[in-house]
Amino acid sequence: MNTKRIASALWPIVPILGALLFTSGLLLLFDASPLEAFQSMFKGSFGDQSKTLSVLAFWIPLTLCSLGLLITFTAGLWNIGVEGQIILGSIGASWIALKVHAPNAFLQITLELIVAMAAGALWAALSAILKTRGKVHEIFSGLALNNLAIILTNYLISGPWQPPEGGTFRGTTPFPDAALLPRFAESRFSPLSLVFLIIALVIVFVALRGTFWGLKLKALGKNPFSAFLLGVSSEKEVILAMMFCGALAGLGGAVRVLSWFDSLRQSISGGIGFLALLVVMLANYRLIWVPFIAFFFSAVLNGSITLQLRTQLHSSLGGILTGLLVLFVLLFGDPKALGLRRKKEEQNE
Amino acid sequence: MNEPEFVRVLASIILASSPLIIAVCGETLTERAGVVNLSLDGTMLMAAMTGFVIALETDSVWFGFLAGAIIGMIFAAIVAFGSITLGKSAVAVGFVLTLLGDDLSAFLGQNYTRIPGPTVKHVGIPILENIPIIGPIFFDQDIVVYFAYILVAFSWWYLNRTQPGLRLRSSGERPDAAFARGISVNRLRYLYTIVGGSLVGIAGAAYSLDVKIGWSDGHTRGLGWIALAIVIFGGWSPIRGALGAILFGATKALATILQRTFPEVSVVAFNAIPWLLMIAVLVLVGSDITERLIMLAPQKMQPALRRWLRISPPMALGTTFVEK
């Protein structure tokens, strides 16, 4: 009995080891030493202060999106469109940064953030309305809207917002300093964005734990039909949940353009939205784990970029490691479920 | 546009649509059996990469297609194992595999980007290729195209006119009734998920070996999702799915022609067309707009129109079935 309990407590290590072993195998295939690769990934994320700050700076929008996704997942929605909502947030913030000059930095940044959140929320609302009115599954509308958001960015960069020196696909002209979030020690990390993150964390925690709205979302996610019978308007809640997530993703997008970069770039989101979906899945849709897993993912991804610079190995290694981790935990994370299923099958035979 | 060019464009549309037709057929079989394999985008990327690399190393496109099919089967088997055996969400497993396939293909194919490799040979079908207009469009093509034709016809016949096809459909529509009649639903679901996956893999290899020759990062990115949308647009029928794939190919070709005609319009505007089309088409089949349009038609035509235009997903699509 006791050994069983220890085994089940230690079990989560198994899928993690599996992911590490698989990734090591891939590295060996390319004649790279796994130990050295993981070491240089670690150095790439925590080797010096600027690298650690980069991990933090990447972690913030990732966690913001993950928090938003907690709300949509609770309502039973697959908000794959989160990627596009980040991009629209970036575009919204860039629009203000480029075209509006407020009298002081406080007003300027406030306006940028509000427009970014509104843009993200509206983009998400499109997905929601397509679902409630057009009966289009949010996975498909979200995916199409992601691609349209990328196309919109490319259009803006190569067209109306193209820098005066000519049409490259690189990005817009850098924003004035007053339009950017104040950054810590010339890094990409803005302490102010950490404040936003903490506020968002508290709001999401309270919304899910202590409000009637959170309860309604849970009902909707667990069983849409009985929620409908109980008088939960699914349309209203779907739209609200999506817009809530869109606003947080939009805020994440604003942080991307106003602190990670200083202009609107071609691949502005950097896949953060998809990564955030993985974060929430690995966290088993629980708030408490989200910041930690997001931090780990941020470290792995930043590390793999350094790895590519050092060893010429493709930086997708970081994505492989995180993807495998989520897959293995998803499939084998719960030993009880594995055991139960097997027993049931035996009984059948 | 003179006639030969018109013919040439149509022939290129058929060629460009054929991998999509193959993928749509594969996913249609899977979904008709009741399983959603959402991993198409990642599967196709992995299969395109593997197919290209294997074909290059063995100097045989056939081994390339075989490798693509095996990759497709592996990905599909993971989806089946996760959703059928472990009872996890097929959407979650499929989505993770989509991202994983994208990254894995980029990593494993990193030394094979932008290099020439073997390609599928062009073969005209004797006699048929000499029919004016139709011949050059449909029968003076690559083997991939003929495979797509045969696959569509076979899938339709198999689904609608055979005993095994009936069993396939019953496990996707009413698994409990099927099980009561002695059909091992979950074993069938495994089978058709893997069969469908192998076709998706072949489709991926068809891109890197024929339609969009070679390999580069994200070579077929987005096309798997398009295929998934076309399955819905096609109302889970191989023939309508194939028409949807051709319609998609035609729209892309039209965009290229329009771009040449109106060079002053930004290139990026035309890139938006497939995605706008995807939303428009899904709204059209999903909402009651279609029903209202059907009501406008003459009374006699309405039942036929309804059969052709309305969609109804397999009733047990995406649900797990516990055999008791």
In short:
The complex is a heterodimer of chains A (349) and B (324). Chain A has 349 residues and is an all-alpha fold.
Explain this structure.
Chain A is mainly α. Helix content of chain A is 74%, strand content 0%. Chain A has a domain at 53-287. In chain A, helix 3 crosses helix 4, helix 4 runs antiparallel to helix 11 and helix 8 (191-210) packs across helix 9. Chain B contains 15 helices and two strands. With 324 residues, chain B is mostly helical. Chain B has a domain at 3-220. The A-B interface holds A 26, 29, 78, 80, 130, 133-137, 139-141, 143-145, 147-148, 151, 154-155, 158-159, 274, 277-278, 281, 313-314, 316-317, 319-320, 323-324, 326-327, 330-331, 337-338, 341, 344, 348 and B 38, 78, 81-82, 85-88, 91-93, 95-97, 99-100, 102-104, 106-108, 110, 222, 225, 228-229, 232, 266, 268-269, 271-272, 275-276, 278-279, 282-283, 286-287, 322-324.
Order of helices and strands of chain B: HHHHEHEHHHHHHHHHH
Put simply, the count of helices of chain A is 15
Strand residues, percent of chain B: under 5%
Q: State the end-to-end CA separation of chain B.
A: 63 Å
Helix content of chain A: over 70%
Low-confidence regions of chain A: 340-349
How many runs of DSSP E, i.e. beta strands of chain A? 0
User: How far apart lie the N and C ends of chain A?
Assistant: 27 Å
- State Rg of chain B: 20 Å
Helix content of chain B: over 70%
Major β-sheet profile of chain B:
2 strands, antiparallel
Oligomerization category of the chains in this entry? heterodimer
Low-confidence stretches of chain B: none
Mean pLDDT over the residues of chain B: 91
The largest sheet of chain A, given as strand count, sense and whether it forms a barrel, is:
none
Mean model confidence by pLDDT of chain A: 89
Secondary-structure element pattern of chain A, one letter each: HHHHHHHHHHHHHHH
Please count the beta strands of chain B (DSSP E, at least 2 residues each).
2
